[in-house]
Write a structure and sequence with these properties.
Bound molecules: adenosine-5'-diphosphate, magnesium ion
Strand order of the largest sheet: 10-11-9-12-13-8-14
Largest sheet: 7 strands, parallel
CATH topology of the largest domain: Rossmann fold
Number of domains: 5
CATH class of the largest domain: Alpha Beta
């Protein structure tokens, strides 16, 4: 196999890059800073795209504008002076016996030195139609015809690295690639897996990516979907999933002490308590949870469901099963108001049979604490007050965290630590696409509520330009006059919270002027927590009719009477965020409406708002958002947990995420087997890097 050229004496995988031709000490430092220290590192720097230079044309045969490669002799190479300083144009003609083509280079005067009159070259670049309707090759790359490095091939274009452009990286790669023959990187995936998906071995995949051979589909290469790409993508995702599976194994490996009694009696109680029929999705989630509770190992599950999909009742049933088994449960919510609301709901459902108590910073009296520690309370509902030191359960068996995305993993762990290997259920209303959920929450099992309870009327959504504002508010006034309540959402202006608060106040004044007859208040993140709670409570109780707010209202307070929402400057919000906001209305009997008012729209903002108006389902919205913005932006800065992926793309490589997840779950129990040694070693060392607390055991 000599696709890679002849090996250079003394170069192997571990050779530092400074021993390559053309790399001095300074350059070596720059490369090292870019993560490229050795030949091995360089081999994993993949092309970002490919150019097809397999077809070489005579200058006379260039059919028209587009990317082309031509061979011919350079004539009339000359520098054209321009009036702009520091701006040089080099012109020439490339000719053969059949014809010629004009060539122009901008700002490359050194070309005059590099090539001699009449020299034979191969040029590749964009051909365009010049003013005189002549075809002209602009800024082509050039090489001497006698030393074809790239001509007649599919040419990889590299990302620039350590101050080197693609061509210079390619020259280094020429020196590095022979190593794939003489000292190939050891295979890290077991044969079994390579065969399962017909993937090439590592060294082969690298050769194919750096030196695509004749038979390769340029189309697949360009999209990152060649078998060679898949080989690296799968490995990257598998390592990540194994890491998550090991983390999970550490939490769930040991058996739990507590046992549930889930028998006919418990089922009868559940039936009696239920105020409505569960949706099919809720039934499925409950079944999955029951199976976990019955298992000798602790549950570690994420319940994902759009706003209003009915996660609370699922949690309530789990708590009921715990209480019915004589075990303690906890339910933690991100705000006091939400905790109170949950407490009220749970007490209505379960209060007749079990003992419930509320724990928030403003309502945890000493006697409740004592009762909790003594085991005289079955279900503790609260805020993060639940995880504070000093609060003790007698024996916490089931820990539930609502709106997990508002907490860190840390708080979940703290709650977990209040018991001995309790079962854990975390819930989130941020619908994220499955491929992303499996990557971000890969250590959790996943239950999804992908269906809304019956009888919900979808929120009618309109997108209107700012010029229609008056009309919108007039209609809002009519709705208010008929007893509705409304949210008016104003974006947070990033640069300064003060400006933001000021603009919000100003907007509040304007809205109030519009809606003078109706009591309104302003809510934003800079208000003290108690003040926020006061305003929110007044709105929930109907004393305030209009709430002018920033996105602080995103999180789950239920105000069924609120049936109108106006979102100002909607173009500034992300798609998922718009959807979250919209979820605040449409929770009661009234037909609900959400009007997004926008200023000038960029193309992407127009696309976002179009999707927002037409898609009602949170998962559909999230899928669209993932494709529009990519995973990092979709999650926002709050979700720092997203791993850095080098080759895999969570949108394009979705099926590989699924495969990697399933395979990791299967492999994690047998990492000790010899064929898995290399893989296991890498994953464990990654874990040690990422999670200092992970001792590997
Ligand atoms: P979320 O998933 O956003 O937390 P909730 O649990 O607050 O949603 O449920 C939203 C509303 O839907 C609540 O008023 C709840 O009582 C109601 N609900 C939940 N499940 C059903 C169902 N199966 N049938 C009818 N109403 C339901
Ligand atoms: Mg909820």
């Amino acid at each position: 196999m000599t696709a890679t050229g002849a090996p250079r004496a003394g170069v192997d995988r571990h050779t530092p890059l400074r021993f390559l031709r053309g790399v001095g000490p300074r350059r070596a430092e720059q490369l090292a800073e870019a993560g490229l220290a050795t030949v091995d590192d360089l081999l994993f720097l993949l092309p970002r795209r490919y150019e097809d230079r397999r077809e070489v044309l005579s200058p006379a045969d260039v059919p028209g504008p587009g990317s082309h490669t031509v061979r011919g002799r350079l004539h009339e190479l000359r520098l054209i002076r321009t009036r702009r300083r520091n701006f040089a144009i080099v012109r020439a003609r490339v000719t053969d016996e059949r014809g010629f083509l004009a060539v122009t280079w901008f700002n490359q005067p050194y070309l005059l030195q590099r090539f001699a009159e009449g020299e034979e070259v191969v040029l590749h670049g964009k051909v365009r139609m010049s003013e005189g309707a002549l075809l002209e090759l602009v800024n082509p790359s050039a090489e001497r015809a006698g030393e074809p490095r790239v001509t007649g091939r599919v040419v990889p274009v590299y990302p620039s690295a350590g101050g080197l452009g693609s061509a210079a990286v390619a020259r280094l790669m020429d020196q590095a690639l022979p190593v794939l023959d003489s000292d190939p990187p050891p295979e890290r995936l077991p044969d079994e897996l390579l065969r399962r998906y017909s993937l090439p071995p590592l060294a082969r995949a690298l050769v194919d990516l750096h030196r695509p051979s004749g038979g390769v589909s340029l189309e697949l290469l360009g999209r990152g979907e060649s078998a060679a790409h898949h080989r690296l993508v799968y490995e990257e995702l598998l390592e990540l999933q194994l890491e998550l599976a090991l983390l999970r194994a550490r939490e769930v490996r040991a058996e739990k002490r507590h046992r549930y009694r889930i028998d006919d009696r418990a089922r009868a109680v559940a039936r009696e308590v239920l105020p409505f029929r569960l949706t099919a999705a809720q039934k499925r989630a409950v079944r999955e949870i029951v199976e976990d509770l019955r298992s000798p190992h602790p549950m570690l599950r994420l319940l994902q469901g759009d706003v209003g999909s009915g996660k609370t009742i699922v949690a309530a049933l789990a708590l009921l099963l715990a209480a019915e088994s004589g075990l303690q449960g906890a339910f933690m919510a991100p705000t006091e108001l939400l905790a109170e609301q949950h407490f009220g709901n749970l007490r209505r459902l379960l209060g007749a049979r079990y003992r419930l108590a509320l724990f928030t910073s403003s309502s945890a009296d000493a006697s409740a604490r004592k009762a909790l520690a003594a085991g005289d309370i079955d279900i503790a509902v609260g805020t993060h007050a639940l995880v504070q030191g000093g609060l003790e359960f007698r024996s916490l068996a089931l820990a539930i965290v609502d709106e997990q995305h508002r907490f860190g993993v840390e708080q979940r762990r703290l709650l977990q630590a209040k018991g001995e290997r309790p079962d854990v259920l975390v819930m989130t209303a941020t619908p994220i696409p499955r491929s992303l959920a499996l990557t971000l929450y890969g250590d959790l099992e996943l239950s999804v509520l992908d269906e809304l309870p019956p009888g919900r009327t979808p929120v009618a959504t309109e997108v209107r330009p700012a010029s229609a504002r008056r009309d919108v508010y007039r209609r809002l006034r009519d709705a208010l006059a008929q007893g509705a309540q409304a949210y008016v959402v104003v974006p947070l202006i990033e640069e300064s919270e003060e400006i933001s608060a000021a603009s919000l106040a100003e907007h509040g004044d304007r809205v109030r002027a519009f809606l003078a007859d109706f009591p309104s208040e302003v809510l934003h993140g800079r208000l003290a927590a108690v003040e926020r709670e006061r305003v929110m409570r007044a709105f929930a109780e109907g004393r305030i009719r209009v709430l002018v707010a920033t996105t602080v209202i995103e999180v789950g307070v239920d105000v069924p009477n609120a049936s109108w929402m106006v979102i100002e400057s909607a173009e500034r919000f992300g798609l998922s965020q718009l959807h979250q906001l919209r979820g605040r209305v449409g929770r009661g009997e009234r037909a609900s409406r959400c009007v997004a008012i926008h200023g000038r729209l960029s193309e992407s903002a127009a696309r976002r708002l179009e999707i927002f108006a037409s898609a009602a389902d949170g998962f559909a919205v999230a899928e669209a958002d993932l494709e529009l913005r990519g995973p990092g932006d979709l999650l926002g800065t709050r979700q720092a947990g997203l791993p850095r992926l080098k080759v895999a793309d969570l949108v394009a490589h979705r099926p590989w995420v699924e495969r990697a997840r399933a395979d990791a779950r299967e492999l994690v129990g047998r990492l000790e087997e010899a064929p898995l040694a290399a893989l296991a070693e890498r994953v464990k060392s990654r874990l040690r890097d990422h999670h200092e607390s992970f001792a590997g055991g």
